[in-house]
Design goal:
CATH architecture of the largest domain: 2-Layer Sandwich
CATH class of the largest domain: Alpha Beta
Radius of gyration: 28 Å
Number of helices: 4
Bound molecules: zinc ion
Strand order of the largest sheet: 3-2-1-4
Order of helices and strands: HHHEEHEE
Largest sheet: 4 strands, mixed
Number of strands: 4
Number of domains: 2
Helix content: 40-55%
CATH topology of the largest domain: Alpha-Beta Plaits
Length: 146
């Protein structure tokens, strides 16, 4: 669209300059076209760079996620290494969940499902990855499950 507009602008400038004899019209329109091209270029760069530079979620959302893990992680011992990242329209969340080493895979999976459901309610369209670990991997920091 920018190409079409700038071509029309150049054409109009030349024709008007020829018809009216006002030679200033040509460079004046050329300047306008140049500014339009710069502006649309800037918009394109802004959009592309924004999509490439992943950002973490806001402090509010992070706090919400921490609370959901803490309140819905019954049976687990703690969660740590929580990371979040926004890429385009998607939000990615991953963390380690420490459970008793003797817990069955089925039980650990149930806890993960519960936490995932709770986080998804507050952050729609979120993609969550949970790495389950036995208790000797506990860091005794991060999120304590209440
Ligand atoms: Zn860990």
């Amino acid at each position: 669209m920018t190409d079409v507009l700038s071509s029309i602008g150049v054409l109009v400038g030349v024709v008007l300059a020829l018809l009216t004899g006002w030679h200033i019209l040509d460079p004046a329109l050329a300047l306008l076209v140049g500014l339009t091209v710069l502006w649309s270029g800037w918009e394109l760069v802004k959009e592309s760079v924004g999509g490439l530079m992943d950002e973490a979620v806001s402090a509010d959302v992070l706090e919400k996620i921490r609370i959901q893990i803490s309140e819905h992680g019954e049976g687990a011992l703690e969660a740590h290494d929580l990371r979040t990242r926004i890429a385009g329209r998607s939000t990615f969340v991953d963390f380690h969940l420490v459970v008793p080493g003797t817990m069955s895979v089925e039980s650990a999976h149930e806890i993960c499902d519960r936490i995932e459901e709770a986080i998804t309610e507050g952050v729609p369209g979120v993609h969550i990855t949970i790495h389950v670990e036995p208790e000797y991997k506990a860091k005794h920091s991060g999120i304590v499950v209440v």
